[in-house]
Design goal:
Length: 175
Amino acid sequence: MARPDKAAAVAELTDQFRESNAAVLTEYRGLTVAQLKQLRRSLSGNATYAVVKNTLTAIAAKEAGVEIDADFKGPSAIAFVTGDPVEAAKGLRDFAKANPALVIKGGVLDGRSLTAAEITKLADLESREVLLAKLAGAFKASLYQAAYLFTAPTAQAARTIDALRLKQESESVAA
């Protein structure tokens, strides 16, 4: 490959590192073209999956200010995540379970280096929508509890007044 081609490839990878909020480095040795196509399709909403050259990727990561602790050996591919990182991590994890030839080496999330184990933990998280729904439910429950606490003294006072009224009526009838 000519030098200008390599410089262009590094520039493109650098831009992808800067534009994405996460990147996952994988080894795809042993996967067929059909399997890679299937993986790209499964990630299409959240990430782009591209085969990369290790040396050029290391240079591009350094130029983008990204530090990946993964091992740049063997045939590598990167999933540049532009959507939800959890969904992309789940897609890669599920594909790796079905196709053990795909090995997740590591990655980066918002400038922080991740190990393969941390990416698996990220994949185990629930989606953003589910977490937001749980948070909304917790807020609703705490608001309901606060409303109950604010109305409890008033309700108790009303019950006490009613009990006194009934007691007074029963005493006046008996007298």
